[in-house]
């Protein structure tokens, strides 16, 4: 990247990796975070950022060091039992008229399993639109609460397809999502039966020590194409609870169709009696991908004001392909403007 001395640059960063969150930094340069997921945040400076797959972050960097060449570097973060390769990928932050040769050694990034660095960075992200007009519209009176556990599991596998009697799947509330042959939006709009059911569980089927030692615990999951149905305009709270099933670890959970407020997160098992008192309802960041810490939980809120069929999934490709997904259906409101638009007349029809 070519830069001019004493100029400031806006870096629009996206994590295009498939399966890992990433630390990113530039040697000898401070990063100023100004936006995440296309929403402004209270600007703060940091030596590094942590960004999830599919997530975007806007960062200012001032070219105020000695003219030369400096490393830009990224490395994966994971707190799961199966660690990714500790690869550090680099680029060059190069000043105009530099003589060549690097002016500094490779920056020291947080360790690939540094949960303190991860949680510290995420905790600093707060919404900037507190006193501006329009003000934040954080839901307070909640109409629909959904508590979702996140896990990797196993299901029986035919010996003609697998070397072992079981294969890996992933689940939300112990339901491993099965992708239908007909998309759910068309099936819902056309009232086509047999494609999905509207009975995704709003709570896990069994409560246990989600973040404890689960050695020997039954890891079987159910297979299904099950959706959550919301009424238009409902204030929704979703608590996402990481578990230690299948090795645990953090998860970046993405919801299509909405930006939502990250109102809280914590370690251990979510306590519905005490943890809501720790929520940030003053300046929570408005995002579309939320970091659920390993051995912990995260809470989000939004208004169901976008009618349609909306996919929620882990942004680790392997987990999404294994079934760590579900669908939220928002019913129509009372007007044309609050109802699903009809498909275009030129849209190809599904065969059969």
Automatic annotation (TrEMBL):
<keyword id="KW-0964">Secreted</keyword>
<dbReference type="InterPro" id="IPR001117">
    <property type="entry name" value="Cu-oxidase_2nd"/>
</dbReference>
<keyword id="KW-0479">Metal-binding</keyword>
<dbReference type="InterPro" id="IPR045087">
    <property type="entry name" value="Cu-oxidase_fam"/>
</dbReference>
<dbReference type="Pfam" id="PF00394">
    <property type="entry name" value="Cu-oxidase"/>
</dbReference>
<comment type="similarity">
    <text>Belongs to the multicopper oxidase family.</text>
</comment>
<dbReference type="InterPro" id="IPR002355">
    <property type="entry name" value="Cu_oxidase_Cu_BS"/>
</dbReference>
<dbReference type="InterPro" id="IPR008972">
    <property type="entry name" value="Cupredoxin"/>
</dbReference>
<dbReference type="GO" id="GO:0005576">
    <property type="term" value="C:extracellular region"/>
</dbReference>
<dbReference type="InterPro" id="IPR034289">
    <property type="entry name" value="CuRO_3_LCC"/>
</dbReference>
<feature type="domain" description="Plastocyanin-like">
    <location>
        <begin position="200"/>
        <end position="332"/>
    </location>
</feature>
<keyword id="KW-0677">Repeat</keyword>
<dbReference type="InterPro" id="IPR011706">
    <property type="entry name" value="Cu-oxidase_C"/>
</dbReference>
<dbReference type="Pfam" id="PF07731">
    <property type="entry name" value="Cu-oxidase_2"/>
</dbReference>
<dbReference type="GO" id="GO:0016491">
    <property type="term" value="F:oxidoreductase activity"/>
</dbReference>
<keyword id="KW-0186">Copper</keyword>
<keyword id="KW-0325">Glycoprotein</keyword>
<protein>
    <recommendedName>
        <fullName>Laccase</fullName>
    </recommendedName>
</protein>
<feature type="domain" description="Plastocyanin-like">
    <location>
        <begin position="2"/>
        <end position="97"/>
    </location>
</feature>
<dbReference type="GO" id="GO:0005507">
    <property type="term" value="F:copper ion binding"/>
</dbReference>
């Amino acid at each position: 990247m070519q830069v001019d001395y004493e100029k400031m640059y806006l870096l629009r960063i996206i994590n295009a990796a498939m399966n890992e969150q990433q630390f990113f930094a530039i040697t000898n340069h401070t990063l100023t975070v100004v936006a995440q997921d296309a929403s402004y945040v209270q600007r703060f400076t940091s030596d590094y950022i942590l960004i999830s797959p599919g997530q975007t972050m806007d960062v200012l960097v001032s070219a105020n060091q000695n003219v030369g060449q400096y490393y830009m570097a990224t490395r994966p973060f994971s707190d799961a039992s199966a660690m990714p390769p500790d690869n550090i990928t680099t680029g060059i932050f190069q000043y105009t008229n530099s003589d060549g040769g690097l002016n500094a050694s490779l920056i020291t990034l947080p360790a690939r399993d540094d949960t303190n660095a991860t949680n510290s960075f995420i905790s600093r992200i707060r919404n900037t639109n507190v006193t501006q007009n329009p003000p934040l519209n954080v839901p307070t009176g909640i109409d629909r609460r959904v508590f979702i556990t996140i896990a990797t599991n196993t299901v029986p596998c035919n010996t003609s397809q697998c070397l072992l009697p079981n294969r890996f799947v992933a689940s939300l509330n112990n339901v491993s999502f099965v992708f239908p042959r007909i998309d759910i939006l068309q099936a819902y709009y056309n009232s086509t039966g047999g494609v999905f059911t509207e009975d995704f569980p709003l709570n896990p089927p069994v409560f246990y020590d989600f973040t404890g030692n689960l050695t020997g615990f039954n890891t079987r999951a159910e297979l299904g194409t099950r959706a959550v149905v919301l009424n238009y305009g409902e204030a929704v709270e979703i608590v996402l609870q990481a578990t230690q099933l299948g090795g645990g670890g953090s998860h970046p959970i993405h919801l299509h169709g909405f930006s939502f407020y990250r109102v809280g997160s914590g370690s251990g098992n979510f306590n519905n009696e005490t943890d809501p008192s720790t929520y940030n309802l003053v300046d929570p960041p408005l995002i579309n991908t939320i970091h659920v810490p390993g051995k912990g939980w995260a809470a989000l809120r939004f208004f169901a004001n976008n009618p349609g069929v909306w996919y929620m999934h882990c942004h680790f490709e392997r987990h999404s392909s294994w079934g760590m997904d579900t669908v939220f259906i928002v019913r129509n409101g009372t007007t044309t403007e609050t109802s699903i638009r009809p498909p275009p007349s030129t849209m190809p029809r599904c065969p059969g």
